[in-house]
Each structure stands twice: as structure tokens, then as C-alpha cells.
Amino acid sequence: MPDTVLWLRRDLRLHDHPALHAAAGAADGGRVLPLFVLDDRLWGPSGDTRRVWLTRSLRALHAATDGALVVRRGDPAAVLPEVVRELGAGSVHVTADAGPYGRQRDEAVDTALGEVPLARTGTPYAVGPGTVTKGDGTPFKVFTPFYRTWKDHGWPAPAGPPPKGLRWATSVDSQPLPDEPDLGGLELPPVGEDSALDRWHTFLDGGLDHYDGERDRPDLDGTSQLSAHLKYGEVHPRTLLHDLGAHRSRGAERYRSELAWREFYADVLWHQPRTAREYLKREMAAMRYSEPGPDFDAWCEGRTGFPFVDAGMRQLRGVGWVHNRVRMVVASFLVKDLHVEWQHGARYFMRWLRDGDLASNNHGWQWVAGSGTDASPYFRVFNPVTQGLKFDPDGAYVRRWVPELRHLEGKAAHTPWDAADGYAHDYPQRVVDHAEQRQEALDRYAEVRS
Question: How far apart are alpha carbons 429 and 65 in whole angstroms?
Fold first, then answer.
């Protein structure tokens, strides 16, 4: 029987992998070649954080496949036919891609393969984008009814462990993995499928039951931090949802809804590909915005003089991840205190984030900017001080990431201007007056609403 190719993309794992089962079934006793193509269209725009994560994830998968993983660099439409010829493969198997570029790329590969079929099996999501619609067939524009319908629709059970009798093909040469770029002081957690499952089981045993009450607290380890593992498919959301079925706590229900937000944003991007870069609510593009300048640089570097904002931006550059509550606050500060368009912030986040997912990141930014689906109203402006006092009540998060304020005890870390020695260690002064800039944001919003 002809060997088959398993072209891996955002599915870097061996368990719960329907496309792997399809490839093994098509081989029917033959061999499966696991292939990853380093596509410059994706590799080039990625920040170094994601490049390092991907490289380490591929290294882990190489070990899990007993060294069989083949890595090639180039245009997939040229690489796949080449590998098929070298192997004499009868088919190529993939997990369907839902992204705008991925869909176009796969069509080009399908055409380039000619008579060799490109079989799409499964999706990186529990429910494939475009599947859940309203009764009239139109897409949902608001999360809550999407969530209800998504739950009612349901999802398949996990696909289980790798197929029995699976044989890897080892007759095709691989190119070496690229060298990891220097991340400086940025530190990443363990990467790969085993690490993802370890993290998930630790969260299930210790954090899930408290998730509903602690998920907004950046000073606590109250979230699963699985977003990067999900982005690269080191674990499938279907696996998580299956395990959540054994839990009936409010935390489990809340976590399920957070997984659904990821699916909702993917669904929005499926129906509206332009919103990866453009305003979903086009009228918001007419608002007066300010060009990025020194204050934007201060925001990027975590030296705005607002401790909760600065802690978040330094966390981004320290570990390639930011707590979700803090993401909303720092995004609001950029768009509504500094009046910089959301695309600048979204691009900066994608440069540094280890979990830089186009749909989730860019639509999260649009939510804050008041221009996206199910958006927060523009007149909702997060106060960076009161948000910090509420969600980091003892100042522990600020002191962790802003060492200039570690001498201030408790909540005083959020208001160094009120302490006699608040600026004793060269913490910067505030770049703007929040109350004034809040009013400026509302005035600019009124101009496009009139």
C-alpha cells in the first residue's frame, strides 16, 4: 500500500489527532511521514518568541516520533509535491485550516498535488469555524447566543492515542531546525505535548474549582496558561472539553465559556477575513487617532507611570504572555488614554506573545477599541489605577514586574505619587492625566457618532 504524508501545522501532537488516524488508515499497513513545512509567509512575520516556541515544539515532536519528523523550508505548494514524489505517497493528510492565509495556501497545495488527494480531517477547534450559525444560516454577531448554540451543537469525542501498528516513514531527508533566536531575558515555560498535558492536569487538580473567582487576579496563578499550547495544537480543545465534562463547578463552566470565546473569534474571522487587519465596525476607522510617538514607546517598554499597565507590558516582554484582565487594561490605555489605533497594539502584541493567535489577539483588541463583534462600548474606559486596586489588591503583581516599586507595601504600589518615597527608585512619572484623556477619548468618539 502507498505511504502517506501527514502535513502538520497547528496540530503538533500525537494524541487526539484525527488527521493522523486518517493518514494511518489510508496507508493501511504502509508508513506515515510526519512533515512540517517552515513557510516564510508565516515564519517571517512571527516574533522571536513564537519562533522559539515553534522550534522547541518541533523538537519535542521529533523526539515523540522517534526522529521521523521531516522539516522542510519553502513554499508549501512546491514542498509538498516534492516530498510526495520522494516518498511515492498516495495521499496527503492535514487538519483543516480556518485562517484566511491557511485556506488560500491549502487550495494552492491541493492544486499543485494534482491527482494526489489532500485530505482534510478535523479542525484545530472543537467546532469548525463557520459551522455554528443562527437559524437563518447567518453568523452570530454576539457571543452569548453563539455560546448557547455552540454548546448545543456539541463536538466529537477525543480521537484517542496514536493508531496501533503505526509505522513512521524514515526514507525522506529532513532539513535542520533553524537556530533559536536570542530572547534575551524572556523566559518560556516547558513546550510540547507532554508539557501541555502536564499543565492541564495540574490545573484540573488544583485551579479549576477556583477559576471562576480567581481568573481575573493576575497576582494569583488562577489560569491554565494553555493558550500557547492550544495555538500550536500541542493539546486539542476537544480533549479539554471532554475532561471538563466530569466537573460540575462554576469554574468548569466558566473555563468552558473561555474556550468558546476562542472559537467565537475564529468564527468571526472565518466569516469576515478582512477583520484580521480592518475594523469590523467600519465607522470607527473615521475616529481621530494619534500617531505613535514617545508615549507609545513608553507603553511598549512598560514605563507609562501607571503601575498596573507597566506591570503588564513588562510581563509581556518577560514571559511572552500577559494575564487576560491585564491585556484589556493595557489595550484600553493605548487606545483611549494615548489615542493610538488598535492595530499598532495588536502588531506589538503579536511580536512578543508566545500565544499570538491572529483571531483571538486582533479581535480582542477590537473588543477593547469598540470596533469589533460583541464589542465593549467605546465609552467604557478602563481606569488603570482602580483596575489595579481591584484585581491586584495587595500590589503583589505590580511588585513582581516593577522592581522600582518593591519598596512600597500593599496597595500603595498602585499609587506611588501618594507616597513620600514613591519615586525613590527612578520609577517614571505618569505620561498622561487619565481623567483628561478619558474625556478626550469620549470627545473623539462623539465626533464619529454625530
Answer: 53
Strand order in the sheet with 70-73: 70-73, 32-38, 4-8, 91-94, 118-120
Q: What pLDDT is attached to residue 1?
A: 67
Which residue, of 210, 238, 271, is where some domain finishes? Answer: 271
Report the CATH number at residue 319.
Answer: 1.10.579.10
Which ranges of 232-323 does DSSP label H, i.e. alpha helix?
Answer: 237-244, 250-271, 294-301, 307-319
Query: Helices 324-332 and 384-391: crossing angle, nearest 10°?
Result: 170
Give the residue from 231, 235, 223 showing the smallest Cα distance to 262: 231
Residues 279-336: pLDDT tens digits?
999 999 999 999 999 999 999 999 999 999 999 999 999 999 999 999 999 999 999 9
Structural domains in the chain (count): 3
CA angle 440, 442, 446 (to 5 degrees): 115
**315 and 226 share a domain?**
no
* Whether residues 200 and 242 fall in one domain: yes
Q: Tell me the C-alpha distance between 235 and 268, whole Å.
A: 23
The reply to whether 307 falls in a domain is: yes
The DSSP-derived string for 89-105 is -SEEEEPPP-SHHHHHH
Query: Nine-digit cell at 382?
Result: 478602563
> What residue numbers bound the domain in which 38 lies?
4-122
Query: CATH number, domain at 229?
Result: 1.25.40.80
How many helices (DSSP H) and strands (DSSP E) are in the chain?
Answer: 19, 5
Same domain? For 143 and 243 the reply is yes
Note whether residue 263 is domain-resident: yes
Could you tell me if residue 25 is inside a domain? Answer: yes
* Same-domain status, 136 and 115: no
Cell reading at 239: 480533549
Calpha distance 193→201 (Å, rounded):
12
Cell reading at 133: 450559525
Tallying the residues shown for the chain, one arrives at 450
The per-residue pLDDT for range 106-162, each reduced to its tens digit, is 999 999 999 999 999 999 999 999 999 999 999 999 999 999 999 999 999 999 999
Which of these, 417, 385, 415, 410, lies nearest to 395 by C-alpha position?
Answer: 410
Given a cut of 90, whether residue 77 has pLDDT beyond it is yes
Output the pTM of the full model.
0.96
